[in-house]
Amino acid sequence: MQVEIRGVERLSFRERQVVTLKEMGLSNEQVARRLGLSPATVATLYGRARAKGYQVVIVLPGDALGLPPADEEGEA
């Protein structure tokens, strides 16, 4: 699985860290402990990042979805 954050160039370094951890499913408290911040700071950074408009795209290989491989006739 590959995760891509589109619009990441609009985010500060700390916002990128918070977004990545939040999108991995961590709570504000978990993110705060990992980054040495308060949960309120995590909430503020996450809110600012969301206001700047980023998108998370998850790219899954076909085998992770149980899809058969492409045939030899050029089907993608």
UniProtKB/TrEMBL annotation:
Lineage: Bacteria, Bacillati, Bacillota, Clostridia, Eubacteriales
Keyword list, A-Z: DNA-directed RNA polymerase, Transcription
Keyword Transcription: yes
A cellular component term, taken from the record's GO annotations: DNA-directed RNA polymerase complex
GO BP field: DNA-templated transcription initiation
Residue spans crossing the bilayer: none
Keyword Hydrolase: no
Record protein name field: DNA-directed RNA polymerase sigma-70 factor
PROSITE patterns per record: HTH_LUXR_1
A molecular function GO annotation: sigma factor activity
Domain of life per record: Bacteria
Domain (HTH luxR-type): residue spans on this chain: 25-52
InterPro entries linked: RNA_pol_sigma70_r4_t2, Sig_transdc_resp-reg_C-effctor, Tscrpt_reg_LuxR_C, WH-like_DNA-bd_sf
